[in-house]
Amino acid sequence: DTEVTQTPKHLVMGMTNKKSLKCEQHMGHRAMYWYKQKAKKPPELMFVYSYEKLSINESVPSRFSPECPNSSLLNLHLHALQPEDSALYLCASSQGGGHMNTEAFFGQGTRLTVV
Amino acid sequence: AQTVTQSQPEMSVQEAETVTLSCTYDTSESDYYLFWYKQPPSRQMILVIRQEAYKQQNATENRFSVNFQKAAKSFSLKISDSQLGDAAMYFCAYRSLIYGGATNKLIFGTGTLLAVQP
Q1: Which residues make beta-bridge pairs with B75?
Q2: pLDDT digits over A43-93, tens only?
Q3: Which residue of A has its CA nearest to B111?
Q4: CA distance B9 to A63
Q5: Cβ distance of A48 and B105 shorter than 8 Å
């Protein structure tokens, strides 16, 4: 199983809503990532978890709150978002732990629209 | 800081022909990985090919091959016998191997949109 599964595929939310994005992998990877991607742009890193600990936060606003409940799951909690936060949110995982096999496997993303 | 540059925003190729996508990068590090990712309209980023900087031999995966020139900091992707399914956005990416290794972030280029004409 080389899949990273993201749910939901599409999400429309109001600026006062609270919602969560979910990401799951069963490859035994110990590093998981959240990226934000605007149309026709490369992905921008938001957060990195290594062995379930937050290791990188790219100065992301606090209205985005990541959570890694266990080594297979990664959540992104959303609250009080702005319309400019509308984007494709990609989850990825890699072996982590200094392994030489460093490629990241990506999920299909959640298309988020903030209204 | 490392940077990745893709100077071709769009490319087009005829089916069954060969096309080369360019990528240059800037780094002061000696150990790193380079990747080409493909993102079709389905949105999923798919790894196409990987190159370790310490390896002189160019990586090859079926119809995909790279021309890795470490001194010139160049990493181009050649797609042979292009197929309609190759149409996608292609991103070149760099990953440092120091200060965290495999959890270091991928640094992406701006992408090249490849169209395949039947």
Answers
A1: B68
A2: 999 999 988 999 889 999 999 999 999 989 999 999 999 999 999 999 999
A3: A42
A4: 33
A5: yes
